[in-house]
Design brief:
Largest sheet: 8 strands, mixed
Number of domains: 2
CATH topology of the largest domain: D-Maltodextrin-Binding Protein, domain 2
Shape: globular
Number of strands: 11
CATH class of the largest domain: Alpha Beta
Order of helices and strands: HEHEHEHEHHEHHEHEHEEHHEHHEH
Number of helices: 15
CATH superfamily of the largest domain: Periplasmic binding protein-like II
Radius of gyration: 27 Å
Length: 363
C-alpha cells in the first residue's frame, strides 16, 4: 500500500513538473498582460487634439500604455459619462461648457495641483471661468477662437468691415461664404449679430428674428462646413469662411493669400481641458501623462500638428509665427474680454427646428 502511495505521489510530481514546463510561458504572458493592464490609462478625447507620436514616446519612456477612445461632440461625451458614471475612463478632454455639466453631475475628482509643476505657467486668461471658477476640477490644455478666414487678394479689391456684417448683412455681402454646419453655433452667431453677446433665453420675437436671418443668409452660403471651411477658402470657392482658428492658421501655412480677421464686436472661445473621472483609480498614472503632455516639446508639437493654442506660452517662443498669429496667441486680458463662450440661447428643440427649416428650404 505504501509503495502504491509513493508511486502515485511521484507520478503526481512528474505531472506537475511537465505541466509547469508546458504552461509556464503562458502563465508568464498572462502575468505580463495583467501587469501591463495595471499600468495603463483609458483616455476619452477628441480625435484631433492628442498627437499619436507624443503618446508613443510617453509609452516608451514610462511603460504606461495609453488607450485612446474618441468622441465626436461634447454632447456625446456627456451622455456616455452620465450613463457609465465615468467608469472605465481615467482621463477625459472636454470643452468648457461640458466641464460645467460634469461637475454638476458630480462625475469628476478634484485636481491635485501639487502634482502639476507647470501650473504657474498656465496662461492666466484661461483660468477662473464660469465652468470651473477656481479650476478645482479642470486643467486648461488648449484653446481656440472662431476667426473669419479671408482671401486677402479678393478683399484688396472689396470692402472689408471687421464685423459680423461680413456674414449676415445683405448690403455688405457680395460673395459666397462658408458657414458653420453646427446648429447651436449658427443660432448663437445669428443671435450675437442681432442682439449682442449677453442675450440669453431669447423671447419668441427674438427667436423669430434669428430664424428669418438664417433663412435670408442661406442665399449667399456656398457651403455649411464645420470642419472644412478652410478647404473652401483655400480652393477659392469662398473668399470668406468662419472657422476655428486651428483650421485657419493651418491653411495660412500653405496658402499665402489666406489671412484672418477678428470681428470688432468680438468672437467665440473654446477651452479644451483635462479632467479626471471620479471613479478612476489611476490618477497617479494620469498625472504622469498630463505632465508629459505639458513639456515644452510636446506643447510645440501639438501646436504644429493641430493648430490649437497651448495653454502655456513658453514653447511658442521658438516658433516662426507671423505677427498677427503671435499677437493672437499672446492676447491680453483686455482682448480676452471680447471672447465669449458657447451657450444655448434658446431650447435645443427650437434650435433644431430652425436648422431643419434652413437646411431643407421648407419655410
Amino acid at each position: 500500500m505504501k509503495k502504491l502511495f509513493f508511486r502515485s505521489f511521484l507520478l503526481l510530481l512528474w505531472v506537475l513538473f511537465i505541466a509547469l514546463i508546458l504552461y509556464a510561458p503562458r502563465i508568464q504572458i498572462l502575468s505580463n498582460l495583467f501587469r501591463q493592464e495595471e499600468k495603463s490609462i483609458n483616455v476619452f478625447s477628441w480625435g484631433d487634439i492628442l498627437d499619436r507620436n507624443i503618446i508613443n514616446a510617453f509609452e516608451k519612456e514610462t511603460g504606461i500604455r495609453v488607450n485612446l477612445n474618441y468622441y465626436a461632440s461634447n454632447e456625446e461625451l456627456i451622455v456616455k459619462l452620465k450613463a457609465t458614471q465615468g467608469l472605465g475612463y481615467d482621463l477625459i478632454v472636454p470643452s468648457d461648457y461640458a466641464v460645467a455639466t460634469l461637475i454638476e453631475e458630480r462625475l469628476l475628482k478634484k485636481i491635485d495641483k501639487t502634482k502639476l509643476p507647470f501650473w504657474n505657467q498656465i496662461n492666466q486668461n484661461l483660468l477662473g471661468h464660469f465652468f470651473d471658477p477656481y479650476n478645482h476640477y479642470s486643467i486648461p490644455f488648449a484653446w481656440e477662437i472662431f476667426l473669419f478666414g479671408i482671401d486677402k487678394e479678393y478683399f484688396s479689391q472689396h470692402i472689408l468691415p471687421h464685423s459680423w456684417q461680413l456674414l449676415f448683412d445683405k448690403e455688405v455681402v457680395q460673395y459666397k461664404i462658408s458657414m458653420t454646419n453646427d446648429p447651436i453655433e449658427a443660432v448663437l452667431f445669428a443671435s450675437f449679430y442681432l442682439f449682442g453677446p449677453h442675450a440669453t433665453d431669447l423671447s419668441p420675437l427674438q427667436i423669430k428674428q434669428v430664424r428669418e436671418l438664417l433663412i435670408e443668409q442661406k442665399k449667399w452660403v456656398e457651403v455649411y462646413a464645420s470642419f472644412r471651411g478652410d478647404y473652401f477658402l483655400a480652393t477659392r470657392n469662398c473668399p470668406i469662411a468662419i472657422a476655428s482658428s486651428s483650421y485657419i492658421l493651418r491653411a495660412m501655412r500653405s496658402f499665402p493669400f489666406i489671412s484672418f480677421i477678428i470681428p470688432k464686436e468680438g468672437t467665440f472661445l473654446a477651452i479644451e481641458n483635462f479632467v479626471i473621472p471620479k471613479l478612476s483609480t489611476k490618477e497617479d498614472l494620469s498625472y504622469q501623462f498630463i505632465n508629459y503632455l505639458f513639456r515644452e516639446s510636446s506643447m510645440q508639437t501639438h501646436f504644429e500638428s493641430f493648430g490649437f493654442f497651448p495653454s502655456t506660452l513658453q514653447a511658442l517662443d521658438h516658433l516662426e509665427l507671423d505677427e498677427k498669429s503671435r499677437d493672437l496667441i499672446h492676447s491680453t486680458e483686455d482682448v480676452f474680454k471680447n471672447f465669449y463662450f458657447t451657450q444655448e440661447v434658446m431650447p435645443e428643440q427650437q434650435i433644431r427646428d430652425i436648422w431643419i427649416e434652413v437646411k431643407s428650404g421648407k419655410y
